[in-house]
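Example 3.2
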Amino acid sequence: MKNKLLLIGGVLLLFIAEILRVYFIMPFPGSQQSNTLSIAYFMNKYIWAIRIIAVILIIFPLYDSFKRWKMWQKGVFIFFMFLYAGIFYMVNFKFLADKMFYQPKTKSLVAAADNKIPSDKLVLGVTINGQSKAYPIEIIGYHHQVQDTIGGEEVIVTYCTVCRTGRVFSPMVKGKKESFRLVGMDHFNAMFEDKKTKSWWRQATGEAVAGKLKGETLKEIPSQQMRLSAWLRRNPSSFILQPDPAFQKQYDHLNGFDLGILNSGLEKRDSGSWKSKSWVIGVEYNNISKAYDWNDLVKQRVINDSLPGLPIVIAIEPDNASFHVWNRSINGQTFRFIADSTGLRDITTNMPCDYDGRVFGVGSSYQLLKPVQASQEFWHSWETFHPGTLQYK
């Protein structure tokens, strides 16, 4: 009886370990709503130790009892071993995140004259040391991360389609360049594992949430999301990431993500306001975060607001896709804008402002509004990773 219990326990441990290892960090029903990150990290870190223990529990009673088993008992055991082999293969070669979403095999960034990306596609744009690059989100949305160099600086351009979060980070960790692989997700947000310490990093915040480096944070690099046409208007010499031919089928599955019309419960937009999958604009300043309803922005066109110590203006272009958040104060003068036929206009001075943030004075002279880092994402994402966030209503 004791041997039988050990055998059953070993087999169950094998099955449970493999299933839970992937269940907690992939979008299976019920897996992303609970705080199971520590369990998931333990399972992944010690999976080989767990497997060895399970095999030991199986081998000893099996060696003592297998010859005495009836044929049907042997058949049942062999069936379960084949079943485990199938689960092992699926979990380790099909269901792991980095086996589902690969890095580009051919990374090509070209000038506007050679670009093949439609101008109405959304991009994540970055400018460093005078060099600008644009990354279509329907491309980086599949890869989840693209490593690149901009203006001589190493960057990781990341995107999570389930949270609709685009972030750009420096890969430098404690002064040394680190490489990352996609490991799974927690609370629907992508997680990356660094190569050196195997710590897990959250995409939405750049924070290490498990492992040796827990509590460390990657430096975020300012980025902007807008249509490619709007980005090239401001940055005509920008380079644009092109599709990798090896992944065209995967990109095609994300066609329509820009508009929120994918036939996917995880990635499709809820057109209502303040629903789990509603779009919001999120802004954080001095540890104070605030969310702005996308529907309100489209209706009002311009929103003037303030976070403690930071007067901001949020504006959306006529394409209803390209948005901007600026500090609406320049040299001590705070503007209050309204929308007009050409862009924005300050209600006090009547000075016009275009969608590149240029506030025009006399003649052709202008002052430049300073961009404020902001993101468009699903409400559930902003609310989860910015607990206590304020809401603009």
